Amino acid sequence: AKFIYLMRNPYTVFESTRSFFTNTIQPLKLQDISNEQLEENILSIYAKLYHKYESDKQFIPEGNLVEVKFEDFEADAMGMTENIYNSLSIPGFTEARENIEKYVGGKKGYKKNKYKYDERTIRLVEDNWDFALKQWDYKL
User: Fold this and answer.
1) Would you state the pLDDT for residue 45?
2) Nearest-CA neighbor of 51 among 134, 137, 129, 138?
3) Where are the alpha helices (DSSP H) in 29-129?
4) What is this structure's pTM?
5) Residue 26 confidence (pLDDT)
6) CA-to-CA distance for 103 and 124, rounded, in angstroms?
7) b/e per residue, 55-65, with b = 16+ CB within 10 A?
8) Other C-beta atoms lying within 10 Å of the C-beta of residue 26
9) What average pLDDT does range 26-39 have in this prediction?
10) Long-range contacts for 127-131 (Cβ within 8 Å, ≥24 apart)?
């Protein structure tokens, strides 16, 4: 198996996840959960996933894993896609290029959510996910 690990700015991950649960999941809930508990869950699960990945990635054979920053992919989707194909020794990029270009071109103009990070969010992320900020070199 081949794996692509997509890293994303932890500040954005926190805001995006909180927004998803608040706007999409909360209306469907079967029991109440406070905003504080929701945030604690997000912070805890992210840390567990991060540390589990970091401890287990050693078991992926050399050449079967590529780690990519979302922002780098977003800045040069075609270049990064070609790099992923090459890094993972996946054949067929030349044949797939036109279709990939069409797909990527169809995404132009997509407006993703923009987040403003208030002091509380910054503190929560830095206090709880400093390991990811440091390893992946994310700053505000």
Assistant:
1) 97
2) 129
3) 35-56, 70-75, 77-87, 93-106, 119-128
4) 0.85
5) 77
6) 36
7) eeeeeeeeeeb
8) 13
9) 87
10) 128/43, 128/46, 128/47, 129/10, 129/14, 129/43, 129/46, 129/47, 129/50, 131/47, 131/50, 131/51
